[in-house]
C-alpha cells in the first residue's frame, strides 16, 4: 500500500498522530475484518435483542465471507463512524452512508449495496411536498445527508438535529416537529410496522447511492470488497437478504 505508507509518512513528518489503516494483506493475515456500523438504524443496521442484524449487516457478513474472512462488528454513534477509519479503529464502515463529494474527500467509497433517498414523513397529508416545508420545523439525524438536503430547502423554519434517526422519528410522533426526513425504506417499514401511528410518507427530497467506506486511499481493500459484493449480488445472496427485509430488491439497477 504505497499510497497509505506515503500518507502515514507525510503525517509523521507533519507531526500528526494518525494510525496506519490496515491494508488488505494485513487483514487477510489476521483472518478477521473489523466492520463498524451504528446499530440504531432499522431495518439496515439494528439490534434485535443482543443480536446486531439488518439488511446491510447481513450483506456485510456475506461479503466478508466471500472475501474468505471472519468478521467482527463495532457499533458506535453515527458521527464517529467515518472519522474512526482515519484513526484505524476499524477497517470498513457499513452504515447507510450516501456517497457524497464531501464525504469522498475524507474516505474511499466502495460500490453501492443499495439505492435509496430521503423522504418527507409527517402526520398530515398537508405536509407532503417540498414546498409544504416552508415555515416548518424538520427533524433529521445529525451528520446525515437528510440534514444537508433539508438545509438546502428554502423557507424551512428550523432543521432540528437528533443523535439517532429514531430520536428524530420520535420527535415527529410527539409533535415536537412538523416533519421528519429519513430514508424511504426506513419510512416504508415504519409505516407498515406502526399503521396506527398516523405517519404519512410524502415526496422524495433527493436520491442517493449507499455504500460502504474504507480509509481514504485503501483501494486494495475497496477492490476486494467490490469484487466480493459483485459476486454476492450475482449469485442472488444479496437479493435474498433484500427480499427478507424489504420484499423487494433494493440494489442499484
Ligand atoms: N443515508 C443517510 C446518509 O447518508 C443516512 C444514514 C444514516 N445511517 C445510520 N446508520 N443512522 O447520511
UniProtKB/TrEMBL annotation:
One GO term of the cellular component aspect? cell envelope
- State its location(s): Cell envelope
Family matches, as Gene3D superfamilies? Periplasmic binding protein-like II (3.40.190.10)
Signal sequence, renumbered to the chain: 1-21
SMART domains attached to this UniProt entry: PBPb (SM00062)
Origin: domain of life: Bacteria
Q: Does the keyword Flavoprotein apply?
A: no
Q: Which UniProt keywords apply?
A: Signal
Q: Which PROSITE patterns match?
A: SBP_BACTERIAL_3
Q: What is this protein called?
A: Amino acid ABC transporter substrate-binding protein
Give the UniProt family note: Belongs to the bacterial solute-binding protein 3 family.
The upper taxonomy is:
Bacteria, Pseudomonadati, Pseudomonadota, Betaproteobacteria, Burkholderiales
Natural source organism: Comamonas terrigena
The Solute-binding protein family 3/N-terminal domain extends over 32-249
